[in-house]
Design goal:
It contains one helix and 13 strands, in the order H-E-E-E-E-E-E-E-E-E-E-E-E-E. With about 220 residues, it is mainly β. A hairpin with a 5-residue loop joins strand 11 and strand 12. The protein starts with a helix and ends in an 8-residue tail after the last strand.
Amino acid sequence: MENNSIRRAVMAVAALSAAMVMTACQPGDAESGADGSSDAPAATASPISSGSTGTSGSTGSTGSTGNAVKTCAATALKASAYQAADRPVGTGTGAAIVQFTNTGGRACVLQGHPTVAGAANGSPELNVPLQVTPVGTASPVKLTPGGQAWLKLTFVQVQGEGDGYCKSGSAPVLYPTMVIGLPGAGAHQVALDDGQFAECDGTLTATAVSATKPS
């Protein structure tokens, strides 16, 4: 009799455990929002909090899934340039804004100050590296698909009319394009929408890439 009682008790515990497992797997426990009914988010660029962390080989915030936002691939970026409204007095380019657009299908991150080289049209490998003095701090900027980020280049300004002159005594230099590099995000050849890059002395200052559009 005692063995029968023990056997019945063991069977009762096994049945109770099976019922608990089946209850835990009911469809009602699925995550909310799984029906995908939310609207598509607008394209944005936003600075990432300094408290965010990333996994090895990536930059930016890590979500609950553990997937960090990676640095933008060169193939996922479109770069363009135009003359800045706020620039040194003179007759050269003075300053230019470089704009980066995320053309990829997922969010990515840009961060850092650029490298800059003068180049001819269609020949990014035949370039003249310029000396860049970084300005300001560099923080990661998260770009959703279609999102944009900017940086500003300020050159030593050309003076005078005609071919112009440099205050240092050197001759002004014209570049049809510039090759702009960002850490981990490749090099991008850009041309001004209204002329060539005219600069003096082969030196410039550059801000870090930012979610805020400079003037």
